[in-house]
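Summary for the steering committee. The consortium agreed at its last meeting that each partner would contribute one worked example illustrating the joint modelling workflow. Our contribution is presented below. We chose a case with several input lines so that the handling of multiple components could be demonstrated. No manual editing was applied between input and output; the record is shown as generated.
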Amino acid sequence: MSATAPTVRPRRLPGRAATGSPLLLGHGRLPRVLAGTVLAVLAAVWLLPLLWAVATSVQSEQDVASPGLSPFKGPFTAEAFRRILDRGNVTLWAFNSLLIAGLVTVITVTVSALAAYGFSRGVFRGRRALLGVTVAAIMVPPQLLVVPLFEQMLLFNLVDTYAAVILPQVVAPMMVFILKRFFDGIPRELEDAARIDGASEFRVFRSIVLPLSRPIVAAVAIFVFIGAWNNFMWPFIVTNDPDLMTLPVGLATVKDAFGIQYAQSMASALLAALPLIVVFLLFQRRIVDSVATTGLGGS
Amino acid sequence: MTTIAPPGTGGRTGRAGPRAGGHHRTGHRGTRSAPGSGLLFVLPFLLVFALFMVWPLAQGLWMSLTDSSLALRDTAFVGFANYAEAFGDPDVWSSLGNTVFFTVVSSVPLVLIALVMALLVHTGLAGQWAWRLAFFAPYLLPVTVVTLIWTWLYQPDIGLANQLLGTFGLGPVGWLSDEAVAMWSIAALTVWWTAGFNFLLYLAALQSLPSAYDEAAALDGAGAWRRLWSITLPQLRRTTALVAMLQVLASLKVFDQIYILTKGGPNGSTRPVLEYVYDVGFTGYRLGYASAVSYLFFALVIVVSLVQLRLFRRED
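What follows is the complete predicted structure of the assembly.
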C-alpha cells in the first residue's frame, strides 16, 4: 500500500454491489459473466486441495489407497481422527503451540507497544539512532540468526526448553514500527490535558493511548500469533524432545512415520489448521483491515 | 461499504493518522514530557533486541571468521578463509542458483495471480466474503500442513495431480522425484500457499483508489479494458513495486517447505542456499563455515533490495 494512498473511499453507486468498482466491468452482461467465471475457476482451484484433504481425512485408509477420482470412494468414517487423537502427541503439540504462540504474542505485543510509545512520545538521547537501528533490523532475515542463536541457547543451557522457543521470537522490529506510526497519528491534545493534571507517562500510555489503539494492537497481536503458530525453522532446531514440540514441528517429524497413511496425514493436517481457520473466521474483518492499514504483516 | 476501512477502526485512523499528528514539536514544549523520559518504555525492547538480535548478528559475523564447530569446543580464528572457501564451493553456487530459480518462478506468478484475483474480486461480484476466504485461507496454514496436503496431491500413484492427468490420457509425472520438475512443483505449492497475502495487499490498494479518474474516463467512453490498462494498472504501480519487493525477499528466503518436502532432493536439485547453511551447520557441524555462507547470502539479499529500491524509485 503506498504511503500517499488517499483516504478516499470508492464511491457507492446505487443499486450496485457494495464493494469494488462497478465501472470496471462496464454495463454489459458478458464481461460480468466472464469475470465471474474466471473468478469461480480460480477459487475452485484454490479450494480443491483443501476439499480433497477433507474428503481424504474422513475415509478409511483402504478406500483412500484405491485409485479413482471420486473424492468419496467409501463410507464416511472418523477413524483417522480417532487414531490421531488416541496417539496423544497431537493434543500435546497443540497445547505446546497454543502456549508458545500465546506467550509470544503477549510478550511481543507488550514489549513492542511500550517501545513504540517510547519512540513516539519519549525525549531521550539517541532516540532517533535507536529507532533507525530498529527499522534497519526489519531487513535481517531471521534465518541468518539461527546458527548463532542456537549457540547462544547452548551457552545459556536453554536448548529443549519453552524459553528457548519463545524468547528469540519476541523481537519484532516491524511491529514496533507499525505501532509507532499509529501512535504518532494520535493527536496529543488528549494526553496533554492528562499530563497537565499530573498523570504519569505510564498512566497516559495505559489510559489514553492504548485504548485509542485497540484495533491496531489487535491486528498486530493477530499477526504475531499467526506467525508464531506457523513458525517452523526455529522451534524445529531448538527442540529435540517430542514433548516440547509445536504442532508444525511434531507433524513434520512424524510425517515419515505415517508412511502411506494419507487419511491420518490429512486428519492431522486439518486438526493443526483448525485453530487458525477459527481465528480467521472470527477476525476476518480485522485481518483485512490491518493489511490495509499497515501494508504489511505476517511472516 | 468496503470492509477495508469501516468507520471508527484502525483502518481509517491509521491512514489519516500521520497527517493529523503532524504537529510542530515546538508547539508542545510546554506540556511535553521531561527530557530522559520514554527510555524506560523502550528498555524492555532494547534488552531483547540486544540479546536476541544484535548479539547473534555480531556473534554470527565473528563465527564466520573462525572454524567454530558444533563438535569441537575450541575454535581458532581463520580470517576470511571461510569466505574464500565459499566462493570456490560448487554447492554454494548450485544452491544459490536453485534459490534464484525458485525466486523467479514463484515471484512472477505470485504477483500476477494475486493481481488478477484482486481485480476480479474488486469488480464487486457477489460473495466477497467467500472469495476472500478461498484465496486467503491457505496463507493461514502452517507450513507442515501445506506440505502434508501437497505430498498427498503429488503422490505418484493415487495422488490427485497424476489422477487428473490420467483422465486426460496423460502419463504420470514425478512431481517431487523428477529433477527437472521438482522445483516447479514446490513453486506451485508456494503460489497456492501465499498468493492470498499479496491478494489482500492489492485488494486494499484497489479499494482505496479514487474512482474519479475511472468515472471520468467512462463518461468519455473508454471501455473496460482501456480503463484497466490506462488508469487502474498505472494507479497500482506503487503497490506492485511493494508487493514485488516483499515477494522477492520472501522467496529468496525459502527453506521450510523445501526442507520438509524434498530435503533438497532429488540429487540436490531443489536445495536452496538456506538449506545448505542448515546442512553444513547442523548436519556437518561446521558452524563457522555455515555462518560465512549465510552472511554472503545476507549480502546478496541487501544488494537485491537496494537494486529493487533504485529500480522502483526511477520508475516514479
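Chain B has 14 helices and no strands. The CA atoms of residues 165 and 171 of chain B lie 7 Å apart.
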